Amino acid sequence: MNLYRITTNGLMFGYKNHLQGSYKKLADAMVKVETGRTFNSYAEDPAAASKAFQLRRNYWRNEAQLRNNNNVRSSFSQAYDTIDLVKNKLGWCLANDGTLVGLNTPDASGRQALGQEILEAANAAVQSMNANYSGNFLFAGADSLNVPFEWSEDGKTLLYRGVDVNATTDEAKKLLQGMVDEKTYVDIGLGMQENSDGTPITSTVYNSALCGADFLGWGTDADGDPKNAIMLMKEIGDILKNCNSENGDFAQAGDEERLNRLSKKLQTSLDQMNVKFVELGTKAQFLNTNETKLKSEKDTLNEQILDVEKMNDAEAITNMAWAQYCYNAALKIGTNILSESLIDYMR
Questions:
Q1: HSE on the CB side for 292, CA within 13 Å?
Q2: Which residues pair with 206 in a beta bridge?
Q3: What domains lie within the chain, and their CATH numbers?
Q4: Which of 107, 186, 218, 270 could form a disulfide with 213 if both were Cys (CB 3.0 to 4.6 A apart)?
Q5: Whole-prediction pTM value?
């Protein structure tokens, strides 16, 4: 039979370990009551912790996608209002240009004043297309930090990101086409994936870039006339402004014919802008629908996280009460282990 010698030091060592263990269980139980979580560390429940981490990662990704969706939707909404404003300016120009008013009014001397108003409307349209939202220019394509539209130094040519919108050279045409084709992809919860070369699969991301040149048109047609709506307004305004202030006669031969031609082309430009306008509205509606889907996914993920992590309140409080009872009992045991003289000293 083995005999064990019970010493005071050994007894104190064992008591101290048990007391510390009881206190740790009490502290853990208190934390669980405070946080409502079933585990405080990965080691307590590796399976649940791994599942919770995966769910929380999906939840954080969902929040980022929701922010991206709302940011793009807000910018598209501002762009929608801006294009509507520019369309109204174009419509006003069509309703008041030479073919509808200047050529048919008994008092043709008003052509010059009308031309000035159309030129001012063209400048206002440029300012509208330079709209800024949250520090980014809405219609600057992928280069949203710099002003997209500006007039040339002589005021005769409209530039889009430094390139003549009439694009009379092959180089200018190539540059403008490249700007129109620019993409700024964002993750809005469409299952973002990449090709083998690292480029995103376009069907899994969303293009948030809006090119102003694409909305207003660019280049010239077979007659050498501009396709850009604002340039058409400017040339119509210049023709009317140069008319005789007294009798309204045109300044040069062929101006009347050119005015009629440009007015018809402005109507075509407005029709094309209406198509882009409807497309933009469709995109905004899609983003609204996508927001609803993302919010639903967020609620579902939150419920799944709670199922894995959340502890029953009654169970948590019961466990804490039991841990408190065990800790108090361990403290009372100490009065039987410690010497009376030490207890007296502590008092």
A1: 5
A2: 186
A3: 72-299 (1.20.1330.10)
A4: 218
A5: 0.77
